[in-house]
Amino acid sequence: MVTLAEVAQHAGVSASTVSYVLSGKRSISGATRQRVEQSIRELGYHPNAGARALASSKSNIIALMIPLRTDMYVPVMMEIAIAVATTARTHGYDVLLLTGEEGPDAVRRVTGSGLADAMIVMDVELDDERLPFLRGTHQPSVLIGLPADTSGLTCVDLDFKATGALCVEHLATLGHRDIAVIGEAPAVYERHTGFAERTLDGLRSRAQELGVRTLHRPCEGGYDAMAVTLARVLDERPGTTGFVVQNESAVEPLLALLRQQGRAVPEDVSVVAICPDQVAVQASVRLTSVAIPAQEMGRHAVERLVAKLDGHGTDEVVLITPELTERASTGPAPAVAS
Amino acid sequence: MVTLAEVAQHAGVSASTVSYVLSGKRSISGATRQRVEQSIRELGYHPNAGARALASSKSNIIALMIPLRTDMYVPVMMEIAIAVATTARTHGYDVLLLTGEEGPDAVRRVTGSGLADAMIVMDVELDDERLPFLRGTHQPSVLIGLPADTSGLTCVDLDFKATGALCVEHLATLGHRDIAVIGEAPAVYERHTGFAERTLDGLRSRAQELGVRTLHRPCEGGYDAMAVTLARVLDERPGTTGFVVQNESAVEPLLALLRQQGRAVPEDVSVVAICPDQVAVQASVRLTSVAIPAQEMGRHAVERLVAKLDGHGTDEVVLITPELTERASTGPAPAVAS
DNA sequence: AGTCCTTGTCGAAGCGCTTCGACAACCTAT
DNA sequence: ATAGGTTGTCGAAGCGCTTCGACAAGGACT
């Protein structure tokens, strides 16, 4: 293993000079710099991370807490994680992967040991038990998701309220008056994951403004669950012509079931999904959808965090504006039959 | 920040004693141990990771290289990553997330800097460019996936050859004589990702032994691609009654298309999928499938790695035996019509 | 010619931990 | 009682780096 001292000797300078060449924190003459860089290359030197962390009290590592559950939005989580990792690298940081399993302890462990300089927390619940610990430390952190109380926290999320509103709006504009909302699994609501409730919120209040009716039903993924849910919905509101689906694994079953019942999409029924673009494009009917901008969220989170680490950067909530892409699953409401 | 020295002072012992209490590398009297542990608790002490790494030349971090692509098997990748992270924690390791983006450089960087003690590499190609670097370092590593030349490497993977064989076998036993294999996207084959070719291999040789015909077609995911592929297959082999699908995003389209053409599953056509159980269960027909044991693979990989780090543990290839679960998508071949 | 900066480099201290050798204190066997 | 082992604890060195103050050497002023 090559050390700083060896590089210094090889280049005929002192260790500190090499260090300053590396960090650029003091000016070094061109000649010396080149000699040092040459030696670094020749010897294949890599600074030792541990020594660096010890001496500078900075690890250049960002911790990322991902949910342990794989029951929802897995591709989105993955995409965020990848975006975080690649963006972090461009800022000179590596990413430490923490699962939710340890819970708040993980926060303590990582902050306490100086393993990471900062932390990104995904899958935040409205009243997340990790929040006190995040507020209690001076280690910067960014949440992906929105808790109930955001004071003293930096959060990045899709504006799910606007997302909900956008969906109804689109359907209402097309003349739909009776809209069913197929939501996430009941467990998601019980857990008080904010995004689901916020979507519903935006959806309902916009619906009221526009004078359209909504009916919300949580739904587990899969065919069987969707079949039951759909039957109930149509039983209660036979005139339903618009669907908003916020559950990746319910969307394809819904399409199949509608087809099976002889309801054509988009002629008889319109469907708007809240899902990644890839899902929307690969479905049996190309879905009008509001995308979940996973990459952007991951990137944003890292950039906020790096700003905080660099001293500028404030606590604030960044809500990404949703965008609805019209595809083949929505169309004008059919003429009223009854 | 609390340091070892402060704990030592608080407990009235020397720093080294505290260190030995923590590591258990020398015997400490019960009384002293308790006093130290008490002080640790009272002061809320957490050992500094950097200092530890520097002094012991061990970071207690395992690097995990995940693919940058999100074009295939994302849930599987995610599940593996989570399994790796949680298993690693039970052995006292944290996980550093590296994307494939940096390629071989990441290997050099991480080994060179002592950031991680060991490395798990996913999405290995047959002739992966990272292999030379992995062989060249004495840092232990485990691959998830199988390259062409496994000498000097430890690998963990599903036995895809046996998986392929198992699929044909099941269909052949049910009387199917003409089997279509719907594979991954062409890009996967071009990249020479081993698992796809190995599956095909096992599938074909077993088919030959059993005297059944196979026709393999790669296929992008989604409806349109699947429609084209299916049409071609049925054109070339109208008598096809069995399908093996190794592409998550082709399976649902295939089922829909078959249904649409009036071919009932499993009465007219049988379908075996190679996919995670969750996908198999949530499909419109509960699929007979060979599961991809993501958790097991992640767990195995970490355990191999830890064994190596502990000195025992050898280079070897661990192939997990596939298991076929019979569900509702396969049945006896229909009586020959022609 | 002397003073004052600026620029480039060095030496040394120290980050918080592990680990090795030393060594009291005690126990056991002669 | 003495030699020989254990057992439990300590002190000190050192891991590889960063960073601070010091200080030559030269340039720009009076």
From TrEMBL, chains A, B:
Source domain of life: Bacteria
InterPro entries in alphabetical order: HTH_LacI (IPR000843), LacI/GalR-like_sensor (IPR046335), Lambda_DNA-bd_dom_sf (IPR010982), Peripla_BP_I (IPR028082)
The protein's name: LacI family transcriptional regulator
An annotated Gene Ontology molecular function: DNA-binding transcription factor activity
Stored PROSITE patterns: HTH_LACI_1, HTH_LACI_2
Source organism of the structure: Streptomyces resistomycificus
Keyword Transferase in record: no
Keywords for the protein's UniProt record, in alphabetical order: DNA-binding, Transcription, Transcription regulation
Domain HTH lacI-type: 2-56
DNA-binding listed as a keyword: yes
